[in-house]
Each structure stands twice: as C-alpha cells, then as structure tokens.
Amino acid sequence: MLKILVTGAAGLIGGEVCARARTRGHAVTALVRRNRHVRGNDGALVPGVHVVAGDITAPMLGLDPARHDIDLVIHCAASLEFDAPEEELQRTNVEGTRQAADFAHACDAALLHVSTAYVCGLRDGVIEEGPVPPGTAFANGYEASKARGEQVVRDSGVPFAIARPSITLGDSASGAIRDFPSLCNVFRLMARGKIASFPASASSTLNLVPIDHVAEGILRIAERMEQARGGTFHLVGDRPTPSAELAHGVARIAHFPDPQIVDPASFDITRLPPAQRRVLGRMLETFGSYFRRGPVFDDSRFRELTGLACAPTDRAWMDRLIQHAIAAGYLPSAPPVVASINQASAHRANAHPDSAAPAAHAHR
Q1: Which has the closest alpha carbon to 62: 9, 88, 93, 100?
Q2: 62, 118, 219, 270: least buried by Cβ within 10 Å?
Q3: Rounded distance, CA 267 to CA 46, Å?
Q4: Do 259 and 157 reside in the same domain of the chain?
Q5: Phi, psi of 318 (to 5 degrees)
Q6: Which domain holds residue 272?
Q7: How many Cβ atoms are within 10 Å of 288's Cβ, its own excluded?
Q8: Contact criterion met (CB below 8 Å) for 299 and 234
C-alpha cells in the first residue's frame, strides 16, 4: 500500500487518480484549495480520502510535513489557462511545483510530477520521452511554464518521475468527461455555427488521450517509482489525429454545420463577417498554433514500464465523445440558426477565386 498525497485532487485528472488509488487500496491524502469535494471522472465522490486544505503556492503547500506520513506526492495541480498572465503561470506552474518538491523532500517522499506532452513546444516530428531540449520555442506561456516546472523537478534532488499527458478527453468506453478542456471551445463554437471557416495546416495533428488511460497510467507509474525514477513518460493517444478529421467529426452529427478548413497561408480573417472575426480572432490567439503543427509522441518507455497501451482513439471513440458532449449540454442539441448564413459568407471570404469547391474538401 502506498501513502500518497495528490495535489489538484479536485480537478479532472487528480480526482480520477484519487478514485483509482483508493480502489487499489492505497491511502490517499487529497490536497484541495476551495473545492473540498474529490470526485472521479464519473462525478461520484471518492470514498475514503483524507481531504486537507492547502495552497500549492504557499511554503510546503501550506501544510506541516511532520503531520503527514507520505511515500509519494503526485503533483497534478496547475494553471491550465493557456492565456493566463505570466505572473500567474510562474506562481502556479513553476513556484507551485517547487513547493511540491520541497514538501516531498521534507517528507522523505518521491515526487511524480504531472506535466504536459506539449512541452515539446513548436517542434514537429517524433518527440522522445526525455528532457525538453534547450532553446525550445513554445506556443504560449502555459507550455513554457510547464517546461520550467519540469526543470524545477529535475533540479530538486528529490526522487522523481515526470508524466506527460497530451490533450485529455473522455473515457475510452463511454466518452464521458467531467470537465471539458479549454481547447474544446474551438469545436464547440464550430458546432454552434459561430466559426464557419478555420485555418489549419493539412499536416497538422492533435494528440487526444482518454482520461482513463491518463489516470491509470499515472497510477501505474506511481506503483513502479523505483523503476520509473528519473524517467519521463508520455501518456498519449495511440495516434496523432488530423485537425481536419476532428473538425469534420463534429459535423458528422447531422445537425452540426461542417466548417470550412482553410490553409493558413491563404486565410484572411479580415474578410470574415465582424462577429465571426471577433470570435475567431480570440480563438486563434490562444489555440491557433495547435492547428499548424504535427508532433508525434513516442511512448515506448511508458508502455515498457507499465504494460499499458491506449485504447483506440478512432472515429467510434470520437463519436462517443460528441454524443456525451451533447448529452451533457456542452454541445447544442439543435441546429444553430446562423450556420448556413455564416458558412456561405466564410466560403466567399476565403475561397480561392479559381476554386469551384470549398477548401475543406482537400483535407478530407
């Protein structure tokens, strides 16, 4: 039996890690800040956890290490806002990680740090399970702060392992997810007819991973910390998913509009109607780079350590995600009335004058 402290225990990943750890018989101390309810991905309260109030930005997480008998700290807490102010990202994702490492050291415990696969930054091609190379360029402050947090862990002197989930979505079997990640807002706006034209490179991909694979993977690393010590592990989907496939996947549900996917080199946002221009401008500022790159995450070390392979992230899984999003009220259950007008105007704004067909067809 492990004695685990989980930071960010009220969050999506932290809560599901707590649920699985308790099912396995581990003792779990759940660190929370405001929300004292620790729930698994199914929304049910996790029984048998010891909930403590703390703050990852405070010295020693706001706790007294002498009062906690801990083998392992699983550090899930983080600011996930891609466009958060730099001060907030530094305070939470870097200095907060330092406090988690200091607490682990004071408890003579190991540290399993939950980072993100997207510390790869703007690199394409195969991304190995190792330290972030010096000079890596990042798409936003969130990615950069998570990379700095990893370096804090490596420099801490605490026995550690680093888990890097990719974009975490619904359960592999049901598609259910308790909280939708912010990147889903792009597809939500497409489904509502607010974005009818979107710039994405033909080669761009996103790596999507089910929540059950992430939480189970973290727990298996935790149970193998001696072998995992000093390692970095990708908890990722079984394939990179083309951006256009995702956009058109939402449109496979009959009442959703099919967005026009346009090559970024020929996309002119100024030619869109004002309402679309405002919405899309905000989205592109935050998420645009994710639709221009194509990292391929190697997870061979993770699979060798844990024996765990990700369930297929195929069209059937995507359909389950979409159906759950509709049932949960995240996606609309009725067709948006502005879709046909917006799509026509977006096509006129961005179609090449010599083209007789929407640019989206070239990506299907």
Answers
A1: 100
A2: 270
A3: 48
A4: no
A5: -60, -40
A6: 184-204+242-293+314-363
A7: 18
A8: yes
